[in-house]
Amino acid sequence: MIEQTLLKCEEMIQRGSSSFYKAFAGLPSPRREAVHVIYAFCRMIDDSVDEPEESPYSIFELRSHFQNLDHAEGHFIWPALRWLFENFPQSSKDQFMLQMQGQVRDLSFTHYETMDQLESYCYLVAGTVGEMLLPVLRDDSNEEAQSAGIALGMGMQIVNIIRDVGEDLTRGRRYLPLEVMEKHGYTQQELERNVVNDRFIAVLQELKGAALDWFKEGLDNVHTYPPESGMAVELAAAFYAGILDDVAASGYDVFRRRAYVSDEAKLLMFRRTAARYPSPFGGKGAAAVH
């Protein structure tokens, strides 16, 4: 029974994020399945706000069911989450609650003024994911590892914000901080007209620099992870950094084209990363990425 439940979580991550799925495909069981469960629930939280008409629950219903997880029924995510906490007892529910708090913010707080505001949001919706993954990816816990996990999540969320500027605009949201736009002389009116110019590129490049700084901090202690987990973390960061490269290659036009990383590019990144890890792990991972 639980096998079918976990398979449904895997199907969600396959459909929702090929980058995340491929980055963590080389993990041993049950770490791999735990990543699928965490992704699936976070996807449901995100969809409940961004696509409420397609979501089986509102964000408030998700929060209520999660608070009463022992008795929650009606969807495969509830037994999957019970399995997660049973198999990884060091996992905390606090980060999931913070994640939902961040998504609730999207319902009312839609235009960001400062980088501090943006980074607070990025922690809630993505830094918390780094914290959720930590007890799944490694058997110990320390402050340095926790900070690194948060940093990786923060960097990934800023990449998402850069990639999704146009899409978010159609939802009435502007995550680009006004102070950064004003610093580079780019206006809200230009944003609404989808203007790509040197000033807009400078705004995105500043955010790109922030994302890369978070990635650097997040990878500083990757050598302390079990090899399979360390490689998964490196791949996830590389795939997301690849989105930034694609944004630049398209002239920073994030209004008319959604940036992505091709399967060929992911395979190249995998080979470069696997070369730093001892065999036979590299060979095992290669099969997973294919």
UniProtKB/TrEMBL annotation:
PROSITE patterns: SQUALEN_PHYTOEN_SYN_1 (PS01044), SQUALEN_PHYTOEN_SYN_2 (PS01045). It comes from the Bacteria. Keywords: Carotenoid biosynthesis, Transferase. One of its GO terms (molecular function) is geranylgeranyl diphosphate synthase activity. GO terms for biological process: carotenoid biosynthetic process. Pathway: Carotenoid biosynthesis. InterPro entries: Isoprenoid_synthase_dom_sf, Squ/phyt_synthse, Squalene/phytoene_synthase_CS, Trans_IPPS_bact-type, Trans_IPPS_HH. PANTHER family: BIFUNCTIONAL LYCOPENE CYCLASE/PHYTOENE SYNTHASE. This is Uncharacterized protein. It comes from Paenibacillus wynnii. The lineage of its organism: Bacteria, Bacillati, Bacillota, Bacilli, Bacillales.
